[in-house]
Amino acid sequence: MLNKSTVIFLFIFILSSSGFTEENQESIKSLREERTAILKYGIDSEIIELVDKMIEERDDSLAEEAEKVFKQTTNPRVRIKLLNFFSQIEYRNAEEMVLKLIEDHENRDRDLIVESIRYISESKNNEILTKAAEILEELTTHRENEIASAAIKGLGKTGKKEYAEKLISLFEKRDYPSSLKPEIILALGDLKAEKALEPLIKILENKDESEVLRRYACDSLGKIGNPKAVEPLIRAFRTGDTILRSYAIYALGKFPGEETESILIDALRDSYYKVRISAAKALGERKVKSAVDILIYKAERDPEPSVREEAIKALADIGEEKGLVVLRNLFKNYRTPTTLRMIALKALTESDLEKSIPVIEEVIKKEWNKEESKLLMDICKILSITESPLLKGLFAKLLEHPDSMVKIYGILGIQKNNLKELREHISKLRDEKYGRTVNKYAENAYDVLK
Predict the structure, then answer these.
(1) I need a labelling partner for 398 at 20 to 30 A (CA). Which of 118, 229, 261, 333 fits?
(2) Nearest Cα to Cα of residue 89 among 68, 114, 113, 66
């Protein structure tokens, strides 16, 4: 029997017009058929709820159907949700359509334009980005600040450095909205605009300047990466402003050299937790092997959970066996808070899956016979979205668990990894004795794995 949380998680979108009742004997539709029907014929709230579910499952199998809905619907809320879905699954086929929508911004919903700008600025197509940048330049002075702000951010994400001068001139205009100037600073960093180097250093070193502008100047100086920014950033790190120091230390992580490396490691001892978080993140991105020992200490014993979390991620990024052993131990240790155990598991699935499988199997075995084990559910959920053929044996095992949700996670993992050799295992779950919910997922995967 499904427990309450499982029922909520597994809410299946059934059309009232389908004639499907508990009593009738119609053959069970696959999940794909059911979801396709909702996208074609469902009301707006059903579509939004379905898309949320597809985002959660990272299900991209109906992306083309979703694009058709985006083209046909006039509801901005539905379109916004679909754009979020396209971004999450990195579906880029809607770019031309979205570009035209932005061009027609005067006749469109404000929030839809903002979400459209976010989507288009993530494009990998240089031609699309060039067209987008031309439109976004005009929108940086839009009368609605929300659209202007999105345009500034989007312009930065396009990477088109030729627009840096325009952004600098807007920043220097006294009558330009002050609320948009922080976004300009961040966009200049995204553009890696060398022309902005001196103005940004000037902002950082001006103690009378806005705290937000000084902090964002740190961020952008780090992204630009010019060595002239190192000394100003070190001075900023040595000030009394704790938040400015956390921005400065992360920015310093972008610069190579023993001096900055030493400063980063020392920052892990800082009394302010956000400085420690920034330092751990920077050390992980730089893959600093000399920081492994102190990161292990932070992962195991830092008093702030968010620091432990970032240290765990950093150890995974660095990839030294010594650190990975600690992550495996943190995951299997029942004294480790569940949230951190899951962060360790996620990190291990991304950086050290092969050696971690025995530990994962060990924990699953301990939880296997526990009734309504939330830990088992959390583990299975992470595994179900992990792409690796190494999980074939584990996924097959999950199909045998008595809990419907565990079975479904196994099905989703098999489908995501296209493990066709397990198709017949899934076929058995199409039997009505396993219940309609499992049947639908099994039917869908069975079809997909042909």
Answers:
(1) 333
(2) 66
